[in-house]
Amino acid sequence: MMTKNVLIGLTGSIAAYKTAELIRLFKKEGMEVKVVSTESGLLFLGEKTLETLSNNPVYVDTFQKHLETKHISLADWADVFVIAPISANSISKIAAGIADNLLTSLSCAYLGKNKPLFIAPAMNDGMWNNPIIKENILKLKNIGVNVIEPINGFLACGSEGTGKMEDPSIIFEKVKNSLIKKKNKKIVVTAGGTREYIDPVRFISNSSSGKMGISLADAAYNMGYDVSLITTVNVKKPYNVIPVETAEDMLNKTKEEFLNADYLIMAAAVSDFRVKNNKNSKIEKSEINNGSYNVELVLNPDILKNIAQIKKENQKVIGFSLSTENLVEIAKRKLNEKNLDFIVANEAKVALNKDTNEVLVIDKNENIKKIGPSRKEEIAKLILEIVL
């Protein structure tokens, strides 16, 4: 949990409905939230809703019910200022230094405080591509404003194009990351079950959801580490995500990322085997003889053994061991054979494709610490506290 003061700005845009979710995310993180809105912003998201979500009054007028000038006091109070959504009109006013309402006055005062300001534009694609708006966006970027650019999607006007406000979860993560003290350390995490193709439409895999690895990457990122997640799962994160499919793909990307990393956490469920001669075209029924089709399997490369060959003295490698029996015995053997610093042992029936887990963390001296049962997000934090 993080205790920070977050000021959220709101302007006139249909995307204002997303601001409610953004406020909820900051409150859930334990942050104090206050909202400042233009009058047109309240036409899209009501004052009572904003007050209820933030547990604070909503500020619209510079001298609203208070003797002090709000554009100064709120600028002093906030650790970070997020305007989401921000309209083309407000972008242009702030870029020009126009202070004709509380939000624009507050922006002018805040920009002199050397504190992070984020804006998340939302507008029609024609307006977003307007060269004047582009020029104003560039002007704001050049003075240090963090612009979370809109994404492509279906717009309120009925057309499809770039102008849709970024997802609140992504905005939240980017803002939160600006408040985290960076550790200048890089962690590589692998996640998910690899796919080994038989033909272009069929593959051998396993039931790994990737949730444990992704939870580890999330937790490391929230602790201030530079994170690279190498995964078979399609996820959108504020840190570096490298998509892969096969064990060989994962090996190549892991070796590449580990060269300048401090830690590797190998949480992926890598297929032990791949098809020796996979077909380039779909296998048809006419190719099946006597009701069967033989597939020859060969061993996949052992990623951790490969990493052990390039591991430097200042680097640490943490492996995972998934077993159906002899949990500790198998984990200790892998720990020693693969030159690991730690190994995390878990049972298949407990871990696979579930939101919870229960693990044993074993160090080089074969000391064992039990964690869980608990949700994988909590397990991830506790694992990192031990191995880092």
Q: Would you write up a description of this structure?
A:
The structure is a single chain. The chain folds into two domains: 5-179, 3-Layer(aba) Sandwich (Rossmann fold), CATH 3.40.50; 186-387, 3-Layer(aba) Sandwich (Rossmann fold), CATH 3.40.50.10300. Helix content is 34%, strand content 26%. It is an alpha/beta fold and 388 residues long. The protein has helices at 17-28, 47-54, 70-77, 88-96, 102-110, 125-128, 131-142, 168-179, 211-222, 247-258, 303-310, 327-337, 348-351, 376-387; strands at 5-10, 32-37, 58-59, 80-86, 117-121, 146-147, 151-154, 160-164, 186-191, 196-199, 202-204, 226-231, 240-243, 263-266, 273-275, 297-299, 316-323, 342-347, 356-363, 368-375. It contains 14 helices and 20 strands. Helix 1 packs across helix 8, helix 3 crosses helix 5 (102-110) and helix 9 crosses helix 14 (376-387). The strands form five sheets. The chain has an eight-stranded mixed beta sheet, with helices on both faces.
Key descriptive features of the protein:
14 helices; elongated; 388 residues; 34% helix; Rossmann fold; 2 domains; eight-stranded mixed β-sheet; six-stranded parallel β-sheet; alpha/beta; single chain
